Amino acid sequence: MKSAQEGAAALSHIQPKRGSSLLRNIAKRYDLYLMLLLPIAWYLIFHYGPLYGLQIAFKNFNPAKGIIGSPWEGFGHFERFFNSYYFWRLLWNTVSINLFSLLIAFPVPIMLALLVNEIRSKTFSKWLQNITYIPHFISVVVIVGILNVFLSPTGPINMLIETFGGTSIRFLEVAGWFKTIFISSNIWQNMGWQSIIYIAALSGVNPQLYEAAKMDGASRLRRIWHVSLPGIAPVIVILLILDIGHFMNVGFEKILLMQNNLNLESSDVISTFVYTTGILKGEYSYTAAIGLFNSVINLILLLMVNRFARKTSETSLW
Amino acid sequence: MRRHWGRNALTTMIVSGLILAGCSNDGSSKTENNPSSESAIKAEGFPIVDQPLKLKMFTRIAPVNGPFKDMPVFQDYEKLSNIQVEFTEAPTDGFAEKKNLLFASNELPDALYRSGLSQLETIRYGSAGQLIPLEELIEQYAPNLAILMEQYPEIRSAITTPEGHIYAIPGIVTTGSARTDKRWINKAWLEKLNLEEPKTTEELYQVLLAFRDGDPNGNGKADEVPMTARIGLPIVQFMSGSFGLDLQLGYNINIEDDKVHIWSGDERYKELLMYLNKLYKEKLLDQEIFSHTEAQYLAKQGSGNTGLFFDQTNNNFLPIADQYEGTAPPAGPHGDQMQSPAAPVPRDYGAFAITSVNENPEATMRWIDYFYSDEGSTLLRFGREGEHYELKDGMPYYKEDFLTVTGAQGRMTPYAGGGAPHLISDKVASFINPPQVQEAYAKLEPYMPKIRYAAPMFDEETAQKVNILRNDIDKYIDEQSTKFIVGALSFDKWDAFLATLKKMNIDELEKIYQEAYDKMEK
After folding, report:
1. Which residues of chain A make contact with B472, given a CB cutoff of 8 A?
2. How many CB atoms lie within 10 A of CB B313?
3. What's the start-to-end Cα distance of chain A, in Å?
4. Which of A261, A266, A277 should one mutate to test binding to chain B, selecting the residue with the greatest count of B CBs within 10 A?
5. pLDDT in tens, B315-337
6. Cα dist. B211→A189, B281, B306 in Å?
């Protein structure tokens, strides 16, 4: 810790003096820069390299001619998508599923963390934590299988409804139920896992603050509101921005597994549409354009939220 | 120490770079190892080549099949032809994905076997040069196929592009009975409830009602499934003939007086959906019809607890086969009576294709052509004489002890599982066409369409246009039809359905099919 601080101090001391002599700096600390090579290569190959393939969104991709040899199409694929009957539905489903997830699913782990933090009994809070984060390790396929069994017309939930005199509901075949099921099962699966980081942040809050609040006669809720929450606010904002960063990429596998002709109206999202038209029907150019459109919206949202966060809370990604 | 580390890193990078380069060299030289052995190919007779030849093929492997390399059929044919085929197998689930990625990455095998290529795919990959035109090869190296194409002119028109190329070979079915699913009705239940075989859709409704309420299986519980079918909308095709809706040109099309008409927005179609909605609502139609899997459906056939279902043969319910008999399509409210879901002679379109990386297209063509002869088709479907089958009156029949081993057939031949490129004639159809199935077909035959037009071949530009239109339209029709049937959408919304179809340019689609039909008829 100390040496790192010294190093940083030394660095800041050197830099202004030598000006822009980056090369000299590299020569001096070549071992550090060498270690950087691997992550840079990884980004170049797996994150920037594929950008080159993005041009097929503006072309009529023909595998035999390759990416470069394929003829240009311009914005034709985008126009086709915007004029498609499914455009608004796809956009609405993608945005709404994410928006609802964000509104409903995002606060849950925070509340769970606060709860765990407040529980006096160490064993009970550990037990609660374990119980809530274990579902995170169940694979998506199994989760959807569980949903199918539990929500089927002859499943336990419908049996319960019928014993209380209701009529059974085909949950997975009704468009209106899709988002509820999707989001609530997501919450169930992930709240424990996501709360870990908040619990860690909470343990970093200075205990003296709690003591002081207690002295001033703050109730338990007041202490949560005025000490715990501000204490983890930067973590919340950062995680919120990160979440927004993949706002449009909803859990693709899970939706695809839960999809059927009857709930398509609310389960058809951009990513599943890209898969079914692009990979299964071989329309690479068309779906590359849709994917690009998706990413652009993502980027715009990220920039907006980041700016908003910087202005209001002084915490932001950059 | 530091310096060493740096040097080591550098050497590692260089060495690994060299290894990578070496690998890629290897990859490109692999194909060159196979010198073109054109001169060694024999025009007729076996073996096809004197020097052993290796071919790589991409194929679909169905759930019932074992690995292709262990199939006696291919082992025997390898000895006979001197061509060794190395199969890359992709399971039925996810097959379309793998196939498309193969073309997109341009990492092609020598040929695609049982590939189920669509018309659009063959045109797209054919005109891109990834698949090679086969018409001349067929002329010279595929005598069996050439003869079939002469006998059945519809084959040529179904597989030839407007530019005159053939990029893929279909499976060919000359047995009428193998071209449509039979309607199997529970004879035992009919007798028990003292009912007549239903002749009209209304009678069918009454019979299904009786199946539901009359407890024909005698267990005191209302657990009978009156009617079931494969997952999803095939039920629409099975019933469409009773409402005067044909399935020409591989689509929802009626042809009358040379006029092509897409009927998806017709009043007749609405009637059909309303009828199916009535069946579904009253639990006469399997409530799991939109969610059960193929395996579950087949299990329902074998359970004997279904009243009416659809299948091509009786293989899946052999132990209780006596309980069922074939029935004719019921006459609809306007007196229509037709068996609409009937495949054309060239049935499995795009079953086999040769790619541009193949260095031995002639030998490959000869290899596949054998399966279009009676002899080759017998080998493919029945395996070894004495071991798997025996001849009775010159016709091959599976041996009893071979049939008793569960799953043995699927491990022996790729034809089990469907879509294999070969000839299905009366001579080799004893298994799928036993007397019971023939009787069932005899009841359907009067109602089979006189002419069955296969899906037309469009030129690339038109094919792309059709693709764009149908992408939206088909998805919409499927989705809405499903909802109409289960009652998630009320029939008040029918006009909105029509309006949307109009907006999706269904008229333009109809015009394109009309033009394709006019060209065909010329």
Report:
1. 84-86
2. 20
3. 24
4. A261
5. 888 888 899 999 999 999 999 99
6. 44, 15, 9
- How far apart are alpha carbons A58 and A51 in whole angstroms? 13
ipTM of the complex as predicted = 0.74
The string of pLDDT tens digits covering residues A229-269 is 988 988 998 888 888 877 777 778 899 999 888 888 899 99
Instruction: Flag if A282 and B103 touch (Cβ within 8 Å).
Output: yes
Task: Compute the mean pLDDT over every residue in chain A, rounded to the nearest whole number.
Answer: 85
Residue of B93, B283, B291, B355 to mutate for A, most A C-beta atoms under 10 A: B291
pLDDT confidence of residue B21: 43
CA within 13 Å, CB half, B117: 32
What single letter denotes the amino acid at residue A94?
T
Spatial distance between the Cα atoms of B211 and B208, rounded to a whole number of angstroms: 5
Q: Is A309 helix (H, G, I), strand (E, B) or coil?
A: helix
pTM for the full model?
0.79
User: According to DSSP H, which parts of B128-214 are helical?
Assistant: 135-141, 143-151, 153-159, 187-192, 201-213
B6 closest CB neighbour out of A30, A84, A283 = A30
Please state whether beta strands B389-392 and B395-398 pair in parallel, antiparallel, or not at all (unpaired): antiparallel
Residue pointed to by tokens 């109730």: A219
Query: Distance between CA atoms of B466 and B428, rounded to whole angstroms?
Result: 37
pLDDT at B460: 83
What pLDDT is stored for residue B143 in this prediction? Answer: 93
Is any Cβ of chain A less than 8 angstroms from the Cβ of B303?
no
Residues whose CB is less than 8 angstroms from the CB of residue A222 and which lie 6 or more positions away in sequence, other chains included: A213
- pLDDT score for B30: 38
- A33, A38, A62: best to mutate for the B interface, most B CBs within 10 A: A62
Single-letter code of the amino acid located at B431: F
Structure tokens at A19: 């000006």
Pair type for strands B225-227 and B306-311: parallel
Check residue A293 and give left, alpha or beta (phi > 0: left; psi -120 to 50: alpha): alpha
Instruction: Note whether B173 and B343 are within 8 A (CB).
Output: yes
**Is B475 in Cβ contact with A260 (below 8 Å)?**
no
**Per-residue pLDDT for B198 more than 90?**
yes
Phi, psi (rounded to 5 degrees) for B310: -125, 125
Is A282 within 8 Å of B475 when comparing Cβ atoms?
A: no
Rounded to a whole number, what is the distance in angstroms from the first to the last CA of chain B? Answer: 84
* Interacting residues of B43 by C-beta distance below 8 A, sequence separation 6+: B140, B141
- pLDDT at residue A143 greater than cutoff 80: yes
- What span, in angstroms and rounded, lies between the C-alpha atoms of A249 and A299? 12
d(CA A270, CA B414): 37
Helices (DSSP H) in B135-186: which residue ranges? Answer: 135-141, 143-151, 153-159
CA distance to partner chain A, nearest, from residue B15 (Å): 16
